[in-house]
Design goal:
about 190 residues; alpha+beta; two-stranded antiparallel ribbon; 6 helices; 6 strands; about 10% strand; binds zinc ion
């Protein structure tokens, strides 16, 4: 997973935790997907596909999570024509909202555990190792499944020349000196 995406999702999980924290403290309301930071990223993209909650339960729309129970209780017991958004009304609401908050906190830990280490597991690779050395070739960064994670390339090797791709290298910090040699930091 790209670092940017990882951080974006983590931020959304934190946003959801904040939302449920405020509901538990009788400050916030649940407007379903309309005030869920995770839904804002994932709901439109078809069936919650990449949402960490969907990945956790393998069900869409938060089915089989404490949210499901909270929503059902609220709709069964408290819904009326004048109230649209869900707030804490009774002891049961309060307990169920706490369950959802705890679920999200656990999800955050799980998400970090599952994704953090894969961020560090990048490797250098020659894009086409079978090509003769005189041919055009590229140095790339791959993940553990050998999938290229950066584009464009880090370095291109062509006709005895090394070209550094600035866009990528601004993040990585590889530079060429005046003689097109790769500069390494001491
Ligand atoms: Zn209630």
């Amino acid at each position: 997973m790209e670092k940017e995406q990882y951080e974006k999702v983590l931020e959304a999980i934190d946003g959801s935790i904040e939302k449920w924290n405020s509901i538990v403290h009788a400050e916030g309301e649940d407007e379903g997907r309309h005030n869920c930071p995770l839904c804002k990223i994932f709901f439109d993209s078809d069936e919650c596909d990449e949402c960490p909650i969907r990945k956790d339960t393998d069900k869409k729309s938060c089915r089989d999570t404490p949210y499901d129970v909270f929503e059902k209780h609220w709709n069964d017991v408290h819904r009326s024509y004048t109230t649209i958004n869900r707030t804490i009304v009774c002891e049961t609401c309060s307990g169920l909202a706490r369950d959802e908050l705890e679920y999200l906190k656990g999800l955050r830990e799980k998400y970090i555990d599952e994704n953090k280490s894969s961020l560090d597991e990048y490797f250098w690779a020659i894009e086409s190792p079978e090509r003769p050395i005189s041919d055009h070739n590229n140095l790339v960064i791959v993940d553990k499944d050998k999938k290229i994670v950066n584009h464009p390339y880090v370095l291109s090797l062509f006709c005895n020349r090394i070209t550094a791709y600035e866009g990528t290298n601004r993040k990585i910090g590889l530079e060429l000196d005046d003689l097109d040699r790769i500069k390494l930091e001491n």
